[in-house]
Every structure is written in structure tokens, then in C-alpha cells.
């Protein structure tokens, strides 16, 4: 048997579970896709490795909604999902969020980031959060959502602890009040760049005195020099 034949035989002896464990250390989706195309056994190894992941990030990768949804569908133990926009070539639309929301793992997610995803609207966000009933941490900063998304979050995410609404300028005082009134475990909210009156923060703190509003509103509004926590 030649060297090439011996190498192929050795590779063929690797059990699928061992391949899956090895593929867990590969973070590049390009490399995983290439590994998946080697043979049927490697494809199964990649699929099983996705099923073992608890954290998944698409940030910085060139990928559309269909490809992201297929990967998330195989990641059935997923707890944290980051599909934030960190490069101009990556963009998810409402249709992509809808397909991602169909994955079985969504109801078990504790953290989701959609930071900077300007291609999504209330329609896609509502589809996603309506299934994410275990959600504790949500970043939807830099998106064009409105109060409708906050109403859906308030109704479907009772475990929510932190939310980033950085520069969500279409969200109003009404959305914030509904969110805080229904999400009783909410500990922190980032409102930087939002167009809401300062009196709104007074109302939010009256409803939930322990709530951390980031960044800190002007302290004199509250009649105290004690600062609020800042991110």
C-alpha cells in the first residue's frame, strides 16, 4: 500500500464522535464547509460538532440568512447566538430571522445579539423573540425597531435581565415603560442615543428602583448626585 493509501486508511479509522470533537475547535465556517465536503463521515462529524456548541457567532463572516439558518438548525444545544453586523458584507433580513426562529434551539437561547443589523425590522425581531422564551440578554442596538418589538419582548421574554437599545431612535417612552413593567427580572437597559424625554427615566426608576440605566442620565433630574452605573 502506498503512502497515500495508508493516510486515507488512517483517516477513515477516525470515529465520527472524535471528528466532531476536533471540529469543535474550528471557528471558521469556511473551513467547516470545506471539511463537510470531504466525505460523508466528515459531513456527519461537522453536523455533530454544531450540535455540541453552546455559543455561535456569525459576526464578521460572509453569510446570508439561509446559510445561517441551516447552521443554527444543527446547533440544537445552543445557548448564545451572535448575528451582529461587524462587516458590511454580512446582513440578515427579516426572512433570515424567520428561518432562524424555526430552529429547535431558539427556545433555549439565553443570549442573542442583533447589533447593527439594519436590514431587520419589527417583523423579523418579533418572529425571533416570540420563540426565545428563555432569553436573558438581548442586544438590538443600532437597528430600526419600534415599540412593537419591545411589546413582543415584554410578552415573550419574562427572564430578560439585560437589553441594549443603543441608538434605537424609533423606540418611544411607551415601549420602554411596557418593557420594564412586564420584564420583572430586568436589571440593566442601555438607552444611549435614544430620543426619549428625560422624565421617562424617572418613571422607569419609579417602577424598578434597582434598574441600571446606561449611560447615566443627568443626576440632577433625580435630585441626587449619586450616579447611575455606566457601561
TrEMBL record:
InterPro entries: F-box-like_dom_sf, F-box_dom, FBXL15_LRR, Leu-rich_rpt_Cys-con_subtyp, LRR_dom_sf. It comes from the Eukaryota. GO terms for biological process: SCF-dependent proteasomal ubiquitin-dependent protein catabolic process. GO terms for cellular component: SCF ubiquitin ligase complex. SMART domains: FBOX, LRR_CC. Residues 14-54 form the F-box domain. This is F-box protein.
Amino acid at each position: 500500500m502506498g503512502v497515500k493509501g495508508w493516510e486515507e486508511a488512517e483517516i477513515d479509522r477516525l470515529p465520527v464522535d472524535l471528528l466532531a470533537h476536533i471540529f469543535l475547535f474550528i471557528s471558521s465556517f469556511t473551513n467547516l464547509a470545506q471539511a463537510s465536503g470531504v466525505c460523508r463521515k466528515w459531513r456527519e462529524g461537522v453536523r455533530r460538532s454544531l450540535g455540541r456548541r453552546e455559543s455561535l457567532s456569525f459576526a464578521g463572516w460572509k453569510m446570508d440568512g439561509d446559510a445561517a439558518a441551516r447552521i443554527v438548525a444543527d446547533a440544537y444545544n445552543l445557548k448564545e447566538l451572535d448575528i451582529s453586523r461587524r462587516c458590511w458584507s454580512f446582513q440578515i433580513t427579516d426572512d433570515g430571522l424567520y428561518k432562524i426562529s424555526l430552529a429547535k434551539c431558539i427556545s433555549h437561547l439565553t443570549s442573542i445579539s442583533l447589533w447593527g443589523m439594519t436590514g431587520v425590522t419589527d417583523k423579523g425581531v418579533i418572529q425571533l423573540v416570540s420563540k426565545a422564551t428563555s432569553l436573558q440578554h438581548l442586544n438590538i442596538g443600532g437597528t430600526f425597531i419600534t415599540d412593537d418589538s419591545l411589546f413582543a419582548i415584554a410578552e415573550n421574554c419574562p427572564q430578560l435581565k439585560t437589553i441594549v437599545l443603543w441608538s434605537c431612535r424609533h423606540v418611544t417612552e411607551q415601549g420602554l415603560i411596557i418593557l420594564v413593567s412586564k420584564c420583572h427580572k430586568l436589571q440593566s437597559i442601555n438607552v444611549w442615543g435614544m430620543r426619549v424625554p428625560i422624565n421617562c427615566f424617572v418613571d422607569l426608576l419609579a417602577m424598578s428602583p434597582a434598574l441600571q440605566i446606561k449611560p447615566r442620565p443627568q443626576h440632577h433630574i433625580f435630585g441626587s448626585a449619586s450616579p447611575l452605573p455606566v457601561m
